[in-house]
Amino acid sequence: MEGGERLREYERAVESARRAIVDVSGLWLEYDRQNDILYINFGKEEAEESVMVDDDIVAGLKGGRLTSISIFNFKRKIGLE
């Protein structure tokens, strides 16, 4: 995959993550204190792809649906560090 094609694919993935449908009926949260990561999961479905949507924020997607969000350096993000 060439550089320009890879960039376009990345941009499509980010846009897909921003427009993803979210089902909150299976919402559960988990905080990893040792690694300072907050995991937000929308059910038990595994993501097919992961997309970095912002600094230290990764969205998990499957078929256009948002399956999870991982927030790295969570304490810093919310101003506790």
N/C terminus separation: 40 Å
Mean pLDDT rating: 84
What radius of gyration results from the CA coordinates? 14 Å
What form results from the Cα inertia axes? globular
Helix proportion? 10-25%
Name the quaternary structure. single chain
Q: Supply the helix-strand structural class.
A: alpha+beta
For the record, the count of structural domains works out to 1
What series of H and E elements makes up the topology? Answer: HEEEEEH
Number of helices: 2
β-strand number = 5
Strand composition percent: 35-45%
Which strand order do you get reading across the main beta sheet? 1-2-5-4-3
Low-confidence stretches: none
Main sheet record:
5 strands, antiparallel
Give the topology, please.
Elements: H1 3-18, E1 27-32, E2 37-42, E3 49-54, E4 57-62, E5 65-72, H2 74-77
Antiparallel strand pairs: 1-2, 2-5, 3-4, 4-5
